[in-house]
Specification:
The complex is a heterodimer of chains A (85) and B (341). With 85 residues, chain A is an all-alpha fold. Chain A has one domain: ACP-like (Non-ribosomal Peptide Synthetase Peptidyl Carrier Protein, Chain A). Helix content of chain A is 55%, strand content 0%. In chain A, helix 1 packs across helix 4. Chain A is globular and about 30 Å long. Chain A starts with a helix and ends with a helix. With 341 residues, chain B is an alpha/beta fold. Chain B has a 10-stranded mixed sheet with strand order 3-2-4-5-1-6-10-9-7-8, sandwiched between helices. In chain B, helix 3 crosses helix 6. Classes of the chains: A mainly alpha (85), B alpha/beta (341). The interface between A and B is medium-sized, with 14 and 12 residues.
Amino acid sequence: MDELILELKKEIIEALNLEGMTPESIDENASLFGDGLGLDSIDALELIVLLERNYGIKLENANEGKEIFKSIRIMADYIKQHRTK
Amino acid sequence: MNDFSLRVSKNIYIKAISHISNQKPLSEEWFEEPIFYSQKYVRSIEPDYKEYFSLLESRRMGLILKRALVTAINVTRKSKIMNPDAIITGTGLGCIENTEKFLTALIKNDEEMLTPTHFMQSTHNTISSNIAINFKCHGYNSTYSHCGTSFDSALYDAFIQFQLGEIHSALVSGQDELTPDYFKLLKKIPYLKNVKVCGSEASVSFMLSDEENGENIAKISDVILLNKPEIKKMLGNLKCNLSEIDAIVVGNNGDVENDEIYNNFINIFDVHIPVIQYKQIFGESYSISGLGLYTAAEIIKKQKLPVINNYGGKINKVLKKVLFYNHYQNKNHCLILLEML
């Protein structure tokens, strides 16, 4: 699980161009949107694409994202259960 | 050809200029000590963007957007005009770097799973709109993409808007980035094929106003932009006699066909007139004419000639009127007359 969290952090930093951030500087339990990392709706779209491209997970319902993208740990947990690649 | 100069009644002033180019960014150092390049392709020297926006704010911006915004911020600060009536941008290639990223991903992912950011910021008018969003400007917003006369067209639009009384201030800029891949393509076509100066990038912002005060850099007395004109007739329509012009700024770049047009233009003037070939410093780019006008404005402000000139030695006359001339492949031609205040 820790390996997956680290991998996910690296992918998010690259996909969202979070220059100056390192995997260590991101708290996997912190909120991704709002007060935490401060991501927005465009980032949510980038994360949906990331899930599909890297893990073969296609979100059918946009509302699912609200739960899945609460934190990196929750995201990693979802990936672990649903990944197809 | 209409005698447009008869309709020119309002004075327009350049209040502030800021640039990011192959010279030291946001600095006038190039005027005295330019950096000369022997390479065929040189990218701009970047300022420290962290001084202008946080990493989170800038992470979606491509280089061209960062450069445009920083030069825009600088001219608003210098001029104290924080909310100009118009934002008008000239760009030949627009956000070409993001366009390349978007198209590469399109091919790589077999037209599926495309990410939104590069697509959203791949259009030409992203630049003007990004500036407007930053300054919360809800006024006139326009973009001109006409190859080597993109900046000239943007300035001409502003000039007309001022004359019509539609605006009292305008942020006019020329913005072009040049990626390594696009440079290779341009080297295969006439635009850059035989050019001897470096292929480069340009980001230059001007704050214009119709308010006269002591802080202005120069007055824009006339702008004429025409397709396939007779040059002598075009000069005849200018709002001054040719004998009154103290220096001319032209865009010779080492390409024989391009330079012939400029040389014919130079030959119309007195043989002793100072001639400044600004592309020897800034290189060639679709928006480089913005840096040509910047050169002309600095000559008036400093009352000196930059290092690149035909004059030799010190100039001992007042440089009241400087004429900037740009042409793109002998099709579109632009004259901009600047005057000392």
